[in-house]
Amino acid sequence: MTELAGDIAEEVKVCQPHERYRSELLRQELHVPRLYGPVVDINPISYELVFDGQPAVAHTLSTGPVEDLTITVHGGQAGTGPRIDFDGNPALYSGDDLTVHQQAFLDLLETAPAFA
Predict the structure, then answer these.
(1) Nearest to residue 64, comparing CAs of 94, 33, 46, 85?
(2) What is the pLDDT of residues 52-95, one digit of tens each?
(3) Distance between CA 23 and CA 55 in Å, rounded?
(4) Is 48 helix (H, G, I), strand (E, B) or coil?
(5) Less Cβ around it within 10 Å: N or C end of the chain?
(6) pLDDT of residue 115
(7) Coil, helix or strand for 49?
(8) For position 88, what pLDDT does the model report?
(9) Using an 8 Å Cβ cutoff, are 89 and 101 in contact?
(10) Residue in 68, 54, 70 with CA at minimum distance from that of residue 105
(11) What distance in Å separates the CA atoms of residue 75 and residue 68, rounded to the nearest whole number?
(12) Pairing of β 83-88 and β 69-74
């Protein structure tokens, strides 16, 4: 058993440098403008904040740079439903483009069968 644990520890050491390879370095090495296309991020956490008995609302100030299109689904706050944000790289998507994609996504949700 001790030998197996030692073998696993060695494999983890070999893999760790690869896990820390920065995406911008990989993009440079591959000579590509973007590593991936649209991304869906599901954040089911409900940030219900209360300070000294007073409810507060959390707001996302920044999601960071977006390479292509990011659809983020946030858990609802204080009895509200989920919030869905669309962020697009301004070099690839105009505000009108995002509106069209958002409406198509909402249409899909309306016509999709409900999950119980």
Answers:
(1) 85
(2) 989 887 777 777 888 899 998 887 766 677 888 889 999 999 99
(3) 39
(4) strand
(5) C
(6) 61
(7) strand
(8) 93
(9) no
(10) 70
(11) 23
(12) antiparallel
